[in-house]
Design brief:
Number of helices: 3
Structural class: alpha/beta
Radius of gyration: 17 Å
Distance between the termini: 37 Å
Strand content: 25-35%
Order of helices and strands: EEHEEEEEHH
CATH topology of the largest domain: Purple Acid Phosphatase, chain A, domain 2
Oligomer: single chain
Helix content: 10-25%
CATH architecture of the largest domain: 4-Layer Sandwich
């Protein structure tokens, strides 16, 4: 996607590999993404929020809105501003949420659990949270 600040590339993980996430300092996938002309690369998969600037490309993982043990189970997201005159601005944020209520609603909905969701849901069930209260 072309933006006033340059090309923004969005990918869940390493393109063509749904099992491997991109981490700070891991140059192989970053170099491949740079060859696509990306100024900013927005990634996911690992649920670990980070901003990494390798000197030419900014790599941003906003984290996860639910499955993020690295943040103490707070929901994590980022505000990304792309402007020609000001360049790229990133503000990462974390907020608390009611983990127990989510797990209860998930259970009541009867949603089938796939192989990738099962371990994440198992972790959420372990999150200490007083009944009826979110993490604080």
């Amino acid at each position: 996607m072309d933006t006033p600040a340059g090309i923004l590339l969005l990918t869940h993980d390493v393109p063509g590999d749904d099992e491997t996430g991109i981490s700070p300092g891991w140059l192989d996938p970053i170099e491949a993404l740079q060859r696509r002309g990306a100024r900013v690369v927005l990634v996911g998969h690992t649920h670990a929020p980070f901003v990494w600037d390798d000197g030419g490309t900014l790599v941003l993982n906003p984290g996860s809105v639910g499955i993020s043990p690295q943040t103490g189970w707070r929901a994590s997201y980022a505000l990304l501003t792309l402007a020609a005159e000001r360049g790229v601005s990133i503000e990462q944020r974390q907020v608390t949420w009611d983990v127990a209520a989510f797990v209860q609603a998930f259970d009541q909905a009867g949603i089938p659990i796939n192989r990738k969701a099962a371990p994440m849901l198992k972790e959420l069930r372990r999150v200490p949270s007083p009944p009826g209260r979110g993490l604080g």
